[in-house]
Design a protein that fits this description.
511 residues, 2 domains, 9-stranded mixed beta sheet, 6-stranded mixed beta sheet, flavoprotein, L-malate dehydrogenase (quinone) activity, Probable malate:quinone oxidoreductase, MQO
C-alpha cells in the first residue's frame, strides 16, 4: 500500500456519530466523492454523547468570553494567543456551515444556530483590572475589534439584567460584550449533516453498532470487529482508513490499535452537572452567554457560565457546569473504563500526572461534596436573586482529559489532541475543550496529516473554495466583518421544509 495515500478500495470507517465524524465525513465526500464511508455509532441515536446539547459544556467556545483562554502573565500582561486561535478556528467553522447551507447540504439553520451575545463578567477590584487589561489587549486584533467594555452597572444591567438585579451596591463590576456571538446546538448540527449524507447515499450510517476490536492487516488495511447491539450479530469490516471519534472511549480503541503513536497516552475522566432553570419567566429575562473566572484548580470545562441555549426548539437557561468525578469514559459508559484503560506504557504517566495536579483533585472532591444549596449559592454570584425552586439539577456530559507522557513522567493536557499513525491509515481524537466549535479546523488538520499527498496537490485548493479564509495570513478587519455579516444571513439562506419521509426517519435518530 502506498504510504499516506488514498487507498485503492476507498473504504473509510468513522467510529462515533458525533460532530467530529460528521464534519470529517462531509469534508471527505466533497474532497473525494467516490469514497465509501461507513459510520458506526454505539448508541441508538446520533450525537448522544459529547455533541449532545445538554452534554456539551460550552456552546459558545468562540474565544470571545472564555477567560481561561486569556491567562494573565506574571508581569500583569494578558496572553491572547489561545483566544485568537480558537476564535479563528470558530470563524472557519461558521464559514463552512454557511457553505453547507448555501449548497443545500443542511437545512433549517435556525434549528442549530441563533444570535446570542457573548459576555465576560467579573467583580472585585483585581478581576475588574484583569478584564480591563484583557479588553485593551484583545481588541487590538481584528477578530475582537467590536468587543464592548463597561464598568458602569447601569450599562451592564441593560446587557444582562438578571446578573445585575439586587447586586451589592458599590461593588466594582465589569463586563465585555460581543454582540456577534452565537448559540450552537452541535447535536442538531451533527444530525443534519449525517442524515443529509445518508439520504443522498453518500455514507452508510449504522447506529447501535459497537466496535469491539480492530487490527492492522498485512496489506496495510484495518479489520474491525463489529457487534450489532440490536441483533447481537457479530461481523468484520475492512477499511483502509479509520477515524476514531468516539469521545472518551477513543483512547481505549487507540490502545487496541497497537499503533506506536498511541503509546504513553492516558485519560482522566471528569463528569459534570447543570443547574437548569424551570421557570419560563426567568428564562425570558436572560438572552446571553455570560462566562466568569474559573476557580483555582478547575478544569476548562468547569468555567462557570449562565448560558442561554436553544434545545429542541425551546429556549433553556443553564448554569454550571459543576465538575464531578466518575470512572466512566462516556456518559453511557462503564465504571471499569478508567481502570481498563491502564497499560504498562501509560501507568507511570497517569500516576505522575495525578501527583502534579493535586489542586485539581482537591477541586473535584469539593465539587462532588456540594449539595444543591451549595450550587445555588454559587449561582447567586452570577444571579443574586436566584430562587432554588426555579432550578433543577441535571447530569451534563462526561469528558476525558488527555494525559501524555513527557520528560517528567506525565502531564495533564487541557485541549484536543490528534493521534495519527505514521502511515496515515488510522487517527483518533482525544481530549475535550474547545472541541466542537473548532471541529472544522481540527478535521482539516487531520486530513492534512493523514493524506498529505492529496492535500498538497489538490485538496487544499478545494477546501479554500469552500472556506475562502482557510490558509490565509493576510486577513484584516474588513474580512472578519464581512464573514460575520455572511454568517448573520444564515437563517435566510435555506429552505424551511423537509419532506415527510426525511422528517420521520430523522426523528428516530434523536435522543
Amino acid at each position: 500500500m502506498r504510504k499516506n495515500s488514498v487507498p485503492e478500495t476507498q473504504e473509510v470507517v468513522l467510529i462515533g456519530a458525533g460532530i467530529m465524524s460528521a464534519t470529517l465525513a462531509v469534508l471527505l465526500k466533497k474532497l473525494y466523492p467516490t469514497l465509501a464511508i461507513t459510520v458506526y455509532e454505539k448508541l441508538d441515536v446520533i450525537s448522544g454523547e459529547s455533541s449532545n446539547a445538554m452534554n456539551n459544556a460550552g456552546t459558545g467556545h468562540a474565544g470571545f468570553c472564555e477567560l481561561n483562554y486569556t491567562p494573565q502573565n506574571e508581569d500583569g500582561s494578558i496572553d491572547i494567543k489561545k483566544a485568537i486561535d480558537v476564535a479563528s478556528s470558530f470563524e472557519l467553522s461558521r464559514e463552512f456551515w454557511s457553505y453547507l447551507i448555501k449548497n443545500n447540504l443542511i437545512d433549517n439553520a435556525e434549528d442549530f444556530i441563533s444570535a446570542t451575545p457573548h459576555l465576560s463578567f467579573v467583580w472585585g477590584k483585581d478581576d475588574v483590572n484583569f478584564l480591563r487589561t484583557r479588553w485593551e489587549t484583545i481588541t487590538t486584533h481584528p477578530l475582537f475589534k467590536d468587543m464592548e467594555y463597561s464598568e458602569d452597572p447601569e450599562q451592564i444591567a441593560k446587557w444582562i439584567p438578571l446578573v445585575m438585579k439586587d447586586r451589592k451596591p458599590g461593588e466594582p463590576v465589569a463586563a465585555t460584550r460581543m454582540e456577534s456571538g452565537t448559540d450552537v446546538n452541535y447535536g442538531e448540527l451533527t444530525r443534519k449533516i449525517l442524515l443529509n449524507l445518508m439520504f443522498n447515499n453518500d455514507i452508510e450510517l449504522h447506529i447501535a453498532h459497537e466496535i469491539k476490536d480492530l487490527a492492522k492487516q498485512t496489506d496495510g488495511s484495518w479489520e474491525l470487529k463489529v457487534k450489532n447491539l440490536t441483533t447481537k450479530k457479530k461481523f468484520t469490516k475492512k477499511a483502509n482508513f479509520v477515524f476514531i471519534g468516539a469521545g472518551g472511549k477513543a483512547i481505549t480503541l487507540l490502545e487496541k490499535s497497537n499503533i506506536k503513536e498511541a503509546k504513553g497516552y492516558g485519560g482522566f475522566p471528569v463528569s459534570g452537572e447543570w443547574l437548569v432553570c424551570n421557570n419560563p419567566e426567568v428564562v425570558e429575562q436572560h438572552q446571553a452567554k455570560v462566562y466568569g473566572k474559573a476557580k483555582i484548580g478547575a478544569p476548562p470545562m468547569s468555567v462557570p457560565h449562565l448560558d442561554t441555549r436553544r434545545i429542541n426548539g425551546k429556549t433553556t437557561l443553564l448554569f454550571g457546569p459543576f465538575a464531578g468525578f466518575s470512572t466512566k469514559f462516556l456518559k453511557n459508559g462503564s465504571y471499569w473504563d478508567f481502570m481498563g484503560s491502564m497499560r504498562k506504557d501509560n501507568i507511570i504517566p497517569m500516576i505522575s500526572a495525578g501527583a502534579h495536579n493535586v489542586p485539581l483533585t482537591k477541586y473535584l472532591i469539593d465539587q462532588v461534596r456540594q449539595s444543591k444549596e451549595d450550587k445555588i449559592a454559587t449561582l447567586r454570584d452570577y444571579f443574586p436573586d436566584a430562587k432554588a425552586e426555579d432550578w433543577d439539577e441535571e447530569l451534563a456530559g462526561q469528558r476525558v482529559q488527555v494525559i501524555q507522557k513527557d520528560g517528567k513522567g506525565g502531564a495533564l493536557k487541557f485541549g484536543t489532541e490528534i493521534v495519527c499513525a505514521q502511515d496515515g491509515s488510522i487517527a483518533g481524537l482525544l481530549g475535550a475543550s474547545p472541541g466542537a466549535s473548532t471541529a472544522v479546523s481540527i478535521m482539516i488538520g487531520l486530513i492534512q496529516r493523514c493524506f498529505p499527498e492529496q492535500f498538497d496537490s489538490e485538496w487544499k485548493t478545494k477546501i479554500q473554495d469552500m472556506i475562502p479564509s482557510y490558509g490565509r495570513t493576510d486577513l484584516d478587519e474588513a474580512h472578519y466583518l464581512n464573514s460575520r455579516q455572511n454568517t448573520a444571513k444564515i437563517l435566510s439562506l435555506i429552505p424551511k421544509t423537509l419532506n415527510t419521509q426525511h422528517k420521520e426517519v430523522a426523528s428516530s435518530y434523536v435522543s
